[in-house]
Amino acid sequence: MRTVRAGWGTYTLLTLFAVVSLFPLVWTAVAASRTNTRLAATPPPFRFGRNLPRNVEIAWTDARLGEALANTAVVAGTVAAGTVLFATLAGFAFAKLRFRFRGTLLLLVGATMLIPPQLGVVPLYLLIARLRWTDELQAVVLPSLVSAFGVFFMRQHLGRALPSELLEAARMDGAGTARTVWHVVLPVARPAMAVLGMLSFVAAWNDFFWPVLALTQTGNPTVQVALTGLGRGAVPDQSVVMAGALLGTLPLLVVLALFGRHIVGGVMRGAVKG
Amino acid sequence: MTDDAPAGAAGMTRTRTATGPADGPDPRGRARGARRAGRGAAPRRVRTGSRWTPYVLVAPFFVFFGAFGVFPLAATAWASLYRMELTAPDERQWVGVHNYARLADDTFFWNALANTVTIGILATVPQLLLALGVAHLLDVRLRGRGVFRVVALAPYATSVAAATLVFALFFGRDHGMANWALGLAGLDPVDWQNGPWASKFAVASIVIWRWTGYNALIYLAAMQTVPPELYEAASLDGASRWRQFLHVTLPGLRPAIAFTVLVSTIGATQLFGEPLLFGSGAGATGGADHQFQTLGLYLYEQGWVNLHLGRAAAIAWTMLLILVVVFGAVRVARALLARRESAREGLGHARSGRSGRDGRRR
């Protein structure tokens, strides 16, 4: 951090940036509290109306946002837990253990970050169709459990925070792998695991392309699938569409408000790594 | 991330030779080794449990990675060689490279490719420049800096779907806020949905809104690794804030910029949700005249609207090839640049630039 103090110019520009960042979200709420007729009039509304409960109710039931929210909570929760678990184990091995093919395997993990998973959707779709998983939540959970980013994130953290002496001491004491991981690795890994969990949760909550293919709005939608249905005309009322967008976004905004500092830290830490 | 290595490589070898072999039990190197671990240099490794332990630990990751990462990608190449309908994928028919030959004559494919590149540039360039600016603003002593940083991530926490639905209303032709604001300024309304450029700009603006703050935080993280002494020295030399930004901040940001360009490029080629939902009723065509249909959207239209999975697979594999070619070209360009640079450095041996780069790693 530099010692330069912020002048009023900096504050003005940053406030402008904050307003631009928040305005669409605030306006989503404004639009969700109005009527369709009011949204189709000029000038656009800037103040809250009284229609929020009605619009939310329609979005909740007709557009199935209620079920979608529950589904998404399950999906994002499972994906976050699984990602953290697998990434911690693999990250620990890559950071601290000596084994053959370590470099090759790590390179393979890195390569996945360059290849967008979207490009594998056709066979993936055939696979889940064969398993009769279309419209089942596991169809969107299982492919998301691997995160190359997660492995690198945990490897970086453990490489830095876990002293090799500690592992050697555990080995001298005759601790096996399971005990070492449980009593030595996990306590050190916990802060990074929490951050990775939050980042994975946000990513899984907002995952779009694959869920839109694998799930349908009438079957077992996640929030993004339900919103896609709304956007493609499931409900003609724009104020209801906005109520849906609000419902689908609010949980993550709450997460951000509660754990914002950690998520910011995660984004900043995840980026500087090599 | 992976591409970050070449940028850091020069400095890394220098540090490593100074400390001796990184893997050995070298008490002197320990403190430094811990710090270097994140940069990819090998820290001291130990053994735990049996010789199979490491493999058991990485196995769960690689099982899922194989089943849902490697297998689908490889099988895409296979699927692209068949005529295969979504309704009856088992009645496939070998057609060889027909799906690819067809793409070459397909105006919609070329249109989608051109749109992807155009929207990609319209979205990425302003986004990264704005992010640099915001990061620069945040990189000072600031009241409420935590709040600003969290607010910067609010658009990132907003899903593609939610963001696009709001922006589609903003950019409504008759009663949207964008045209209302233009009207206030005495300008004519713009047809944001149907204008070939206006619609691309509108789609790009959604991407810009969602990712500027995220990238700003990445830049900010990199800026904070620049040692303050460098700024002090620069301001003693009478360098203005702008010149400090150019000559001290930017060089330190090179790996971060490479990283964000890489990630944004990959993201831009995959653009899907924004054009799908911005066209609201139009569905997967990306506007009445396909004016903002991207490759991702065209893939979806071929596979899941027209039900031609073989063709969709050919599009996916072509997208992959395009990415590989782009990365390859960047690699080659970089290698050439590096060679020219090192030749120049060899001539005018290690003056100002070198000291800046070393300082960053201290």
TrEMBL record, chain A:
It comes from Streptomyces viridochromogenes. This is Sugar ABC transporter permease. The chain crosses the membrane at residues 73-94, 106-131, 137-154, 181-205, 240-259. Pfam families: BPD_transp_1 (PF00528). Residues 69-259 form the ABC transmembrane type-1 domain. InterPro entries: MetI-like, MetI-like_sf. GO terms for biological process: transmembrane transport. It is found in: Cell membrane. Belongs to the binding-protein-dependent transport system permease family. PROSITE patterns: ABC_TM1 (PS50928). It comes from the Bacteria. Keywords: Cell membrane, Membrane, Transmembrane, Transmembrane helix, Transport. One of its GO terms (cellular component) is plasma membrane. It is a multi-pass membrane protein.
